[in-house]
Amino acid sequence: MIAIRAHFLTGKYVAADLATGAGRSRAEWPPHPARLFYALVDAWAALGRSAAGRRALEWLESQPGPTLRFSEAHHQPNRQTFVPVNDDIPKTGDESADFPFRVKKSRSFAAVVPFAPQVDFVWSATPESQVVQSLRDLCEATPRLGHSTSLVHLELTQETLNKSESHAVAVPLTEWVLQDDGKNVCRVPSPGRLAQLDETFTRSMNLSSAGDPKLVKKNPLLSPEPIPVAMPRPDYGTVARYGPQPTTRPLVSSFSRREWVIFRIAGPAIHVTRTLFIT
User: Would the CA dihedral through 177, 181, 182, 184 be positive or negative?
Assistant: First the structure.
């Protein structure tokens, strides 16, 4: 077996449930296996698109959907925020004062606060050692799961994950497994998905190079090269049905030994924005 545990460093998970439509009024929970796969693909591209990493991702996409282990979560109110966007050409006078050549639009960021800030993805198959190491490297290079504010630490293991570690308060966990008649639908990677993502990325770069004025714009502050406006996007992908796994064992959560608790002994208070400099 092989398992990846996602620790949510800020205590929340930010990602919209795509089933809610364009409004994206509700957060996705638990994180779909496809979210994890896309995060690993992003890390693979950032690391230079190695052949070993590609083989590891192709092994992962060929597996059935993993078992999901997670706690209940509190859905935060869906608030509207005006932010600079990348997918629209501003009209004269509409540019953001802080971000020239970009216009601000209303966006919502659905989020949940899980009672236990972690999710386990567990596959029953065991890959070869080189694939395991490549997946571990990708996990260590993955900073987020979902939105860019949804920071994570991914921990890969081939050992059975402890369902009961030392924790002051026991948090009941739920296990979802693949079921033909399951009522919960999740997006999952499937064979060929990495190639589809790669092809979509290549098409978007080709559009940028072509310089079609209907599809690209130039932002001299960011890059001298044209930037795609109508960026090609991959399709929704494959879905699988999940259902709860009957169990008589108590499942509880815990703080990981990798998590830190920092106390200020002296000196000025550290603003929350400095967290990334510490971690």
Answer: positive
